């Protein structure tokens, strides 16, 4: 089906950033959200970003919309915007490993290795990432740990 293909393409393109299995009805009903997901499936992240960035729905009622927007921002190199959006999402729910992963990738993009390491470590502790994402997180923890010199600091 087209939907399954779209989700597969998004996952491949943005892996291990986005996990879209859980969607809020508000976001699902938003035509821009659907068009943006189709654009992502067609490897058009800038088009997806252009569709979502103006007048987004309230964060609290459309977290998946904002999670996708944050992932697109991260993918396009808008790391500060993505970091801020992931931090807002995490203020609502700190148990979303995919959001911690997105924050880690964004902070790493901003060259904030110690913040990225802490976010990767938090994502790892939640044990809810798919295998490929978990392997990626563990590899980044191993790569960043010695560099920052603060491996035990977040405990």
Helix content: 55-70%
Note the main sheet.
none
Instruction: Find the count of extended strands (DSSP E, 2+ residues).
Output: 0
Secondary-structure-derived class = mainly alpha
- Poorly predicted ranges (pLDDT <50, ≥5 residues)? 1-25, 147-155
Give the mean pLDDT.
81
Q: Report the principal-axis shape.
A: globular
The H/E string reads: HHHHHHHHH
Give the assembly state of these chains.
single chain
The total of helices stands at: 9
Q: Report the portion of residues in β strands.
A: under 5%
- Cα-atom Rg, whole angstroms? 15 Å
Distance between the termini: 45 Å
Q: What does this protein look like?
A:
With 155 residues, the chain is mainly alpha-helical. The protein is 69% helix and 0% strand. It contains 9 helices and no strands. The chain has helices at 2-14, 25-28, 31-41, 45-52, 63-75, 79-92, 97-109, 113-125, 131-148. Helix 8 (113-125) packs antiparallel against helix 9 (131-148). The longest helix has 18 residues, at 131-148. The termini are far apart.
What are the SSEs and their pairings?
Elements (H helix, E strand, L loop, with lengths): L1 H13 L10 H4 L2 H11 L3 H8 L10 H13 L3 H14 L4 H13 L3 H13 L5 H18 L7
Summary tags:
155 residues; mainly alpha; 69% helix; 0% strand; disordered C terminus
Structure described in brief:
This protein has 155 residues and is mainly alpha-helical. Helix 1 crosses helix 3, helix 3 packs antiparallel against helix 4 and helix 6 packs antiparallel against helix 7.
């Amino acid at each position: 089906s087209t939907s399954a293909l779209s989700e597969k393409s998004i996952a491949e393109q943005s892996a291990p950033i986005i996990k879209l299995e859980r969607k809020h009805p508000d976001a699902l009903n938003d035509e821009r959200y659907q068009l943006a997901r189709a654009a992502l499936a067609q490897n058009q992240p800038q088009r997806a970003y252009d569709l979502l960035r103006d007048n987004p729905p309230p964060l609290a009622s459309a977290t998946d919309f904002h999670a996708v927007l944050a992932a697109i921002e991260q993918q396009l190199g808008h790391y500060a915007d993505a970091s801020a959006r992931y931090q807002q999402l995490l203020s609502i729910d700190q148990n979303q490993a995919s959001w911690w992963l997105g924050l880690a990738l964004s902070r790493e993009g901003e060259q904030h290795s110690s913040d990225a390491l802490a976010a990767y470590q938090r994502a790892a502790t939640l044990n809810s990432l798919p295998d490929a994402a978990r392997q990626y997180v563990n590899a980044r923890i191993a790569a960043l740990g010695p560099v920052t010199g603060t491996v035990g600091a977040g405990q």
